[in-house]
Amino acid sequence: MPTSGAASVFVARDTELAELVRVASRPPSVAVVEGEPGVGRSRLLEELVAHPGIASRVVWSTRCVPFARPCRLAPLVDALLGSGAVAAAHAAEFSPVTGVLRRLIPEWSSWLPPFPENADDGTVRQQEFRAVREVLTGCGPAVLVLDDVHAADDETWEFLRGLAASPATSLSVVVSAVACGPRRFPPLPGTAAQLSLRAFSAVQVRTLLDVSFGRCAPDFAEAAHRRTSGIAVDLTALVQSAGDALPATVPPIVRSRVAGLMAAIGPAARDVVSAAAVLGSPAGEPELGAVAASSAGEISGAVTEAVETGLLRDLGRGRYVSGSPLIGEAVYALLPGPQRCAMHGRAAARLAADDEPIASLVARHARLAGDLAEWTQWTGVAVDNAIEDGRTEEAGRLLEAALRDAELPWAARESFAVRLGRELPRSIAHAGTVRLLREILREWPLSKAARGEIRVNLGQVLINQVGKVDAGRLEIELGAADLGRRQALLARGLVTLALPHIGTVPVEENLRWLDQAEQMSKGEHDAGVLAAIAANRLSARMQIADPGVWQDIADLPPVPESAEVCRQVARTYINLADAVAWNGHYPVARAYLTTARRLIRDDHQPYLDALADGTELRLDLAMGEWASVTEKARAMLTRVDKDSSLAAEPLLVLGWYEYGQHRPAAALRSFDAAFALSAGSVPVQASAYAGRVAVHQAGKDLQAALRLAEYGLEIVRRKNNWLWAAELMPFAVRTMLGLGQHVEARELLGEYRQGIDGKDAPVANASALLCRGLLTRSRGETLPAGDLLLGAAQAYYALPLPYFAAYADELAAGCFAEAGDLARAVASFTTAETAYASLGAAVDALRCRRSLRRCDPEMPRRGRKGYGEALSPRELEVARLAARNLTNREIGERLFLSPRTVEIHIGRALRKLGLPSRTVLTEERLEGLTVKEPGR
């Protein structure tokens, strides 16, 4: 992490420096370096002056400084004085004409020739040019380096033009200048190099910080680039004043630099720069002039002057912005309060007059101008626009920011609070927003109707997103007391409690709440409420795997009649996808998610999107698409609140993936975190328990596994929906059998089979078959046990649930091997190994391979050894497709392989070919390669 006072280093300009050294080493030559103020022109010239490549040359260098009344040839005089000792050493070689320099450089009078006699004003100027040229070229091969030449006097420009037109054989000239403005340095004849320096890119900033301070976090580098726009001088000041994070305020050195620049420009330019800082976004001359209160006649000149100093940046097409966000911050901080407020007021008025005003911007400027009435009005308009466009999260942010403002007028507080409550269930709720609504309910004087509506909506969020079912139910019940006859709203709250997966109460209690919601909705004409109740009725029936629900699902409207009904139908399909995924109908779940996303593709619904993403993650894991699950899961965790129940499913998926990779500590952390957030979802809790039991069982800690299994089973038993124990049952039964609890395991299986009887849940039936095989094996009946376990494996493959299928196949193979049926053992071990390998479960695959060798010692060893360092047929086939830039998924689809298996083949091919990565794998490299016979 950057530390204060770290030394500045030179990076990202190596190419430009090399070019300048090349030009300076080959006189006569001229190089011009252009760029915005602050991009590093001066630093580049400093590196040139110190470069070993020109160490044998005399270097005359200086920086041109602007003066209100510039002195003639001042930069050249400064450059000569800087190496006066060199000039004095060659004084005897100078011609008498150099005596004219006595007036310009009195410090050299002791060794210069006498001032020429009979010199007059008409001839002295020409003689001065000749004298300066003679000194520059008369001390040996030399380089003249002038920084910021745009600030030089006119006579210095004229001298440089003459020097370029009639170059001296031993002199190279390197100058730097700004890239725009009225003082832009004109092109010189014979220029050998014209370099244009740009601000650092984000990648260059990252490189600079890595070199300067050691490895730097990407987000730190990105933030530094964003705040400075890559302007080198401000970037250096910012990171040198950073501790563990970038400073929130403007560093003093930047503030001082900006203050100096502001003082050096005219009043009109200062007002324009201030206007840009107040606006904070790209603006044209009319907007800048309106905010600055400048006249039309002076705005163009003021903008030009501001751009030339770097305080304003020209974006092209007539749009301008502060030189960088940091410069804008510094300018804004320098503005006196009254001037700042007045400018914000003018900004609000100007933006409001646009044909299509951006309401949120108008509201922001009105607030900063202190106009509370305009701020409130335009905030309401901004919220309306966001809701209409489907930007519910933005609407929520605007409302929350207004409600947290102590100066929000009381007249607007209640309506804004009610609107925030309405939008929250559709958004991804954050803990701070929930706390704000609770504080409003506790401390603000609200009407009963407003309080009741906020409570019902808050209750929905607490149940669906926070996982606090009891607290959510209490809010809905309290809301019911306030709502009176607003039955539709109350029904919407009660229907939230109706889904069986919610809470620890028995399923029958959830269904009673659903009945109450239906009773309350009788006579209602609110299509959205009726659709919500119908949606939860279907979802509830699917969660208990009612075989008769399929026909009713087929009756859902393909094209809903309104936007609200469309959202409810989309929610229905997402809930159905979740339910059928837990039941084991994986392809159907995928189809339901596709339908849901089609219905809401033009209506941004963050909460529904997150629900769908969580279910899709579980499907990817279950169906064996492991190559992308970790990336998807971590991406989802960045989108939802870390304390939200929406984070439970990605954490659960990470836990099972890490378990399959034999990373027990990481798996336990993920399972524990998922369980902590899943209080509102019994199936997620049961799956988290299953994962924890599996980890402890694999670690031979059967007592801990049994304790956790009993907790998980009790949750399912209390809920009275045994379908959700499908993952937990095999691990629970195997743990009990490992501890000698045969009777208890048999009784548990009987209870489970009774609980799933008559249900349309194929994964539960496969689980029951696996448990029967485990119990049969415990009685010593190995062949019948193998048949049952093989049947379970086939049932899992049919879903498909490949990891559990491979697990069952491996158990079946063990039974067959124990019974002496080695042929069937080899077949099942082979199938299990192939399944594990396709998933990337390398440890499990290796275990099966070792078991195979024990069953058949004569079996040839698999892998690279059969072909030595030559490519196998499959490796060559995969490598050729990869060389054609096909992705792992595309190669897998062509060859009927999983993306993970493709990745393994590519890795082996690259190793054998001696290539570092697939980016250098080309069809040319593979030309002429043939496949050798194994072992040859």
What is the subunit arrangement here? Answer: single chain
Task: Report the structural category.
Answer: mainly alpha
Strand content: under 5%
Q: Please describe the biggest sheet, giving its number of strands, its sense, and whether it closes into a barrel.
A: 5 strands, parallel
- End-to-end gap: 55 Å
Enumerate the strands of the largest sheet in spatial order, edge to edge or round the barrel: 2-3-4-1-5
Q: What's the Cα radius of gyration?
A: 38 Å
Mean pLDDT: 88
How many individual helices?
46
- Strand runs, count: 7
Question: Helicity range of the residues?
Answer: 55-70%
Overall geometric form: flat
The unreliable regions are 1-7
Defining key terms:
936 residues; mainly alpha; 5-stranded parallel beta sheet; two-stranded antiparallel ribbon; flat; disordered N terminus
